[in-house]
């Protein structure tokens, strides 16, 4: 306890410079803890949103046969999710039953037929886009409360309808489940996000907090060595050092949590692109707060204890400024195996032997990426010292020789100054690989957007209205042949496309030779058609009329073929389907089992307009939009926003680590600079020395970070199972960023050489 009190006493009574350094340590720790809290809060925000989704999901108590109890008297619901741009719009159609159930979270009561409850964001969109009201028919009765929505920007509506309007609805007797099927981010994707954030933010953050904990390390080591020479024990020296570093880190952690609370309130209200949350969602849990309050001081104590152990073990060497021992070669150990694994994956991808064992790759890739990141940190002093010695021997330049000899004698200084920016560039390459993989998922290169509707229960006039919606430029009906479901034999079926030649040209522009009134078999050279579709085979198709009478239409597969090209696999028909003109169907009869396929441009505004028009014809129609998985688009938008936020945090941490370390190193070197000035060195020479000391290890580390980062990115893409392994589009950007970092570091080093020479610094303790 006496040593701890002594440390606090030295902290408050050792001069203004020491107090300023203590405040800098507190401020640096506060920034680091705020960034750490942001990263740790992201999974909690997503989990809270998923919890509210699970609380509003409908459920029905079932018996032993998995049959819903009381389904004949329970209310009915139908859930529809439509794309609204790149966001999902969820509509819940509710039909009342003979029994009354409690409303879901966010509602005082369930809507009656003709009534609508909407989310605040959907309320705003309805005022901006009047055509959207066709999808949400009824009188607006109120807004959905916050505890019934996943986030403030959610487009959600409860729509009341009658039971005869809800033929496809399912019975519901309660709301709330222990899990949700519609996670904001899927667990597998969330693991990728966590892993990337760990590389982009947490690894540079650990380096940054270590730098903040070791401000003025040389001056502190000399002071601790003096205490050791005065008779203080080794453990006592470490306790004195811990009192200062832990006090600064703990105060900074408390301040950082306060800053995070303010930032959470501001950002949650303003929102990030595609990702918003309620302020309460971002509140830190007790475990997260303890991690920040305990982890930051623990890291500060660990980082500061290195210098304290050295001062306690050999105080005379510290006081006399003895030459540091060269860094041990074991620092290369984490780098070499990590690069080995990454290189092996790159070679496998280049030779066409990309691995498909996802379980092994999911274990090796994170280990390799983390190993390379740690290896970059530990190998930098070794590489800096080796290169500095070689350059100093070969160079005849006085500034370059002085700079290289200083780096050779003090290789740890390069670690503190350059590591944050080097890790930032390395993490940027890794994040780019994740974005490339996400881009492969979201890219829609097809110029045509199809819409698929089931024709069961849809009358002929409504089908005609669907086909005449503004923006629809083509349509056809796909029918499947009838087969006996009670039979145990393997069913032989045929798919038939009902359209005229004009419609077929819009569906398959590469098909030639169509004749009106003539059937044909569609064949693509790039596909293998179904063996059931052999010429001469006969298949029955079930039809019905408006009075409910049914009859079978027997279709013989024709000998005549229509060939078309489908090299990219994006054709809307399949090889082996039979093209049949509408005149082949008996008058007054319609298919019993068929789908209506509509076509439009894939432009987002056209898709939005067509969906609004389809909703105007029948708001309860279930429309599938192949190629547009809106929930996946929403997830990817959230992931991209989180990664962008992580990159911004990483940039803040990297720049802050450089500024803190470079400034602190310049202050520590003031005695050496003063001595060189008194020996006749010009300020221009001293500035050149300072720039060379910083730029050379930084440039070496950045080159290694760019190479290792691109290799890690490529190996990640190889193990991801995508089509793109090598992407050169990001290389110029990474090189530009690396050059920018070097330029900023060089310019930032110039003002660190003061003009005023103070000889007192040579003998001052």
Based on the structure, what is the oligomeric state of the protein chains?
single chain
SSE-based structural type: alpha+beta
Approximately how much beta-strand content do the residues carry?
Answer: 5-15%
Broad shape:
elongated
Q: Major beta sheet, specifics?
A: 8 strands, mixed
Output mean pLDDT: 79
From the alpha carbons, calculate the radius of gyration and give it in angstroms: 35 Å
Termini Cα gap: 27 Å
Q: How are the strands of the largest sheet arranged?
A: 15-12-16-11-10-18-9-19
Care to describe what's here?
The structure is a single chain. The chain is an alpha+beta fold. Helix content is 53%, strand content 12%. The strands form 4 sheets. An 8-stranded mixed β-sheet has the order 15-12-16-11-10-18-9-19. The chain has a 6-stranded mixed β-sheet with strand order 5-4-6-3-2-7. A 3-stranded antiparallel β-sheet has the order 14-13-17, with no helix packed on it. A hairpin with a 2-residue loop joins strand 2 and strand 3. Helix 2 runs antiparallel to helix 4 (187-213). The protein starts with a helix and ends with a helix. The relative contact order is 0.12.
